[in-house]
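Action item from last week, closing it out:
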Amino acid sequence: MKRTWFRQGSSSQTWRLLGLSVLLCAGLTGCATTEPTDEIADPFQGFNRAVFAFNDAADQVILRPVAKGYHEVVPRPARSGLRNFLRNLKSPVYLANEVLQGDMKGAGNVLTRATVNTFVGVGGLFDVAGAEGYKHNPEDFGQTLGSWGVGHGAYLVLPILGPSSLRDGTGLVVDMFLDPLNWQRQAGERRLEICPFCGRRHRQARRTA
């Protein structure tokens, strides 16, 4: 039997971890709101340098070659369809953050996109709503915290994902808990997310070439 991302019966533990993540971020980044500044503190410089070196090595040895191979093997229509499909699956996360930010217009945009693309766009493979002017606007919990006045906090380099901040890193963890797909997602299904990542990495490589 395959192991699920979250075990059944652990919903209370999940919400406790979610609350702890929010409180941790608020506590550690609260000082950033006392004095407006464009700079982000870097108290974890040693850690960040080590993770940056790891990311650079992983990019050269693994990520860039895989991204290049993905781009060359998978035709563009298939890449676009997969990207649209996974964006559509994350609609609950976008919707939750729009509501938490108090942006009802944005929430309506997410609901319209999810409904149209699911039923007219063949389960989200085609971005029909986008063609009609309902643009994809991904909102994450890091942005939600920002809308509540929480500062960036310390500069943080995340493994594989790259530069971030304590606020946005915490937001990433919270979004994982908000994503209903993660509640019962099985390990084999998570591999789908590698494909859009490869697409993003290839586009970055082309811009920096």
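Closing note: The mean pLDDT is 79.
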